[in-house]
Amino acid sequence: MKKNSIILMILVLGLIVSSLSAFERVAVEGQNKTVDITVDYLEVEKLAKQSDQDVKWWLGQFKDMGISSVALNEESFETLSAEKKPIHFDVVGNILEELDWQDKYPKHVADYLSTGDIDHYDFVVTTNDQGLFQFIKNALELRYDPKKIKIFAEDNRYVFVLDGDIKDALYTQKRTLIDQESKPYKEETLLFGSQLMRLSLGLDTEKVDIVKESGLEVLPRPYNYQDWSGDHYVKAVLGDYERLGVNPKYMIFGGKQVLGYPDAVEITESYIKKNDIKLGLIESTVQREHIKQDGLEELARSLEYNSIRIFSVPPYIQKRFKFYNYEGAEEIENTLYRGITERNIRMIYFRPFMKDDRVYVTDVEEYKKTFDQLKGRIAEHGMTFGEASVMAANHLDIWKKIVMGWGIAAAVVLLVSYFITLNDKFKYGLLVVGIIGVTGMCYVLPSWADKILALTAAIVFPSLSMVYLFNMSRQYYDNKKKDRSLANSILLGIRDLLVTSAISFMGALFVASALSDIEYLLEMDIFRGVKAAQLLPIVVFGVIYMMYFGYKRKQDTKRQPQLPIDDMKRLLFDNIKIIYVAAAAVVLAAGYIYIARTGHETNIQPSTFEMITRNLLEVKLLARPRTKEFLIAFPAIIVAVYAARHRYKTLLFLAGLAGIIGQTSIVNTFSHLRTPMYLSLIRTVYALGFGIVLGIGYVVVLEISMRLIRLVRGEKLHG
User: Fold this and answer.
1) Which end of the chain is less packed: N or C, by CB atoms within 10 Å?
2) Distance from CA of residue 269 to its chain's centroid?
């Protein structure tokens, strides 16, 4: 201990600064406690058509449940067609392929389309409704460049020709033509239509009035199409809001770009700042980061992160009615609850429940029950429904990052010193190099420094926890005179579980603090080292085990402070037996499942039974402990101590392997940066508590099993 006093002092200093930064993050998260809900107008309209009530009635019901606004998309040629309005559109390339196409259009239009002044990608819209013609005409003239639009009115037939190009074109997927022998003849794609069918035409006045009469606020969804956007367009869109008396609290963009992208975003920014509007970041369907929209992150930074994370209920969640054997929408409620409490979601973009792809749930009581229960559950976290709260723009001072980096560098030197014999001169020289390197990195590569420091901490501290565990295990293994009573083994196991977890928690604290910038909390940036932080400590674990217990050593010697080179050589050049191959296959399969199930971007998902169990824990507890931690990994540490005290090497190795997974999981829990720190801490404490109880149970079962085996063998039982 004295030899490492300076290293430990620097490590403690880093932990102190990390703790201060963690408190600042917790304070920021603690002020973010209000959740808002908006409902999609189009979905409510479809719901109303399947029920005995109209849209206005349903909106009134949703208002009473706590929903504050209605998300309303701007009209487009596509939406007008979907609403069965008298409108037809197509691209010129398809029109000209018809033999009698001239007969379908007024003479002036046919002449224009025949002149060659157009191309195959131009977009043609026709209607015979004068009111609809006037609506479209006014919208196009107010919003877009007149050079791109031709308007014809003749014999109560109205035609718009919009100047499109190949970038607007939509094609069918590639299809294969076959001959009579079913052999491929050729592949082709067909021109289907144009993206101009989604060109924004403004809000529907009638829909706006319905929403207002229901007592709800209109939340417009502006749509931007890059090649047709500009100052003129943005001013027209925002002018519509003023004309219709729409004052949005949030700005949630539709489409692939923010309003005004690329050249008129500053007008949108000015409007948002002037009206103190919160910017919406829509979480992606894999619950990681947010939907990419051109200009969105730059706009969020310009607004000093006056932004909220939004969970937009996707179709597959809508259809989780009576899912997992529930009687109603409980699983949908669970999904909303997890988004709010675990992922910093502060607005729910709600869509009504569905029984299948077409049929909506029209029992209003199901919706009331869901929102009442959701309100009660989030209240346990001090949260309420209301105008969505915004997190303060937390940023980590560079000096704090540097000092934390010094602490992590000290931990690296400490870990290396367990593998390689270092004299003081070399040890402190390595520490100085680490300190200088960290300091320089924080100045030269600031955007990479926090991620590199977090990844290093996530690997080093779980590895140090295994050094502690196997150092203690070796002492237990060698001490033949010790008290081997069951109670003593359990107490030592609990102590070592708590100590190893405390060491790993240091790494979790460094990760959660180093990555506490607002961009991580809003998931505009993420920690991409999660997989590596889970795998590499397992590799280090193998080296640590061989360092203390070797691999097929002729003599069971005590550990020396050096890499177990001879043991690794024996392992690499050992004769491979079929049992080894089978065991390796099992381990690889388990490892793949372990890594693949981390996150939502894989087809390997928990079983129905596991999900029901998880949901039960989620309802009963403030935070659901991680299954692998309390069921396997944490009890395994107690089992490892028992195995070491009884000299069961194979069991010690297997228990240690399970144990390292738990230690990396502690860090991984805090690596989910969108999750408030208090929740991650509670989750870990729960897992430790349950893990201790199960660990005691596992050891008791082991002890009884070993006693029975010895009785069968006729051996004399001791203590």
Assistant:
1) N
2) 27
Domains of the chain and any CATH numbers: 2-22+394-713 (no CATH), 32-74+202-385 (3.20.20), 82-196 (no CATH)
Residue 652 and residue 643 in contact, taking contact as beta carbons nearer than 8 Å: yes
Q: Which candidate, 62, 56, 59, 52, places its Cα nearest to that of 368? A: 62
Give residue-wise pLDDT tens across range 229-285.
Answer: 999 999 999 999 999 999 999 999 999 999 999 999 999 999 999 999 999 999 998
Residue type, 430: L
Rounded to whole angstroms, how far apart are CA atoms 568 and 543?
A: 8
Dihedral angle computed from the Cα positions of residues 614, 675, 660 and 621, in that order, rounded to the nearest 10 degrees: -30
558 φ/ψ angles, rounded to the nearest 5 degrees: -75, 160
d(CA 463, CA 543): 10
State the pTM of this model: 0.89
Choice among 85-89, 112-116, 284-288, 322-326 with the minimum mean pLDDT:
112-116
Q: How many residues does the chain have?
A: 719
Instruction: Give the span between the Cα atoms of 93 and 226, in whole angstroms.
Output: 23
253 and 282 Cβ atoms separated by less than 8 Å: no
Nearest partner of 462 among 429, 425, 501, 496, judged by Cα: 501
Tell me the CA distances in angstroms from 421 to 1, 418, 539, one per residue in order. Answer: 15, 7, 20
Cβ atoms within 10 Å of 19's Cβ, excluding its own: 12
User: At 283, which amino acid appears?
Assistant: E
For residues 117 and 147, is the Cβ–Cβ distance under 8 A? Answer: no
Rounded Cα distance between 91 and 190, Å, is 12
Rg (CA), the chain: 32
Tell me the two tokens of residue 289. 């980061």
- The CA distances from residue 29 to 21, 94, 317, in Å, are 12, 55, 27
Strand-pair partners of 250 = 278
Q: Any bridge partners for residue 191, and if so which?
A: 171
Q: What does the pLDDT look like over 681-706, one tens digit per residue?
A: 999 999 999 999 999 999 999 999 88
Distance in angstroms (rounded) separating the CA atoms of residues 357 and 321: 12
Look at the block and give the residue holding tokens 């579980």. 497
Query: Which alpha helices (DSSP H) does 573-648 contain, by range?
Result: 578-596, 608-620, 627-628, 634-645
Rounded to whole angstroms, the Cα distance separating 333 from 321 reads: 10
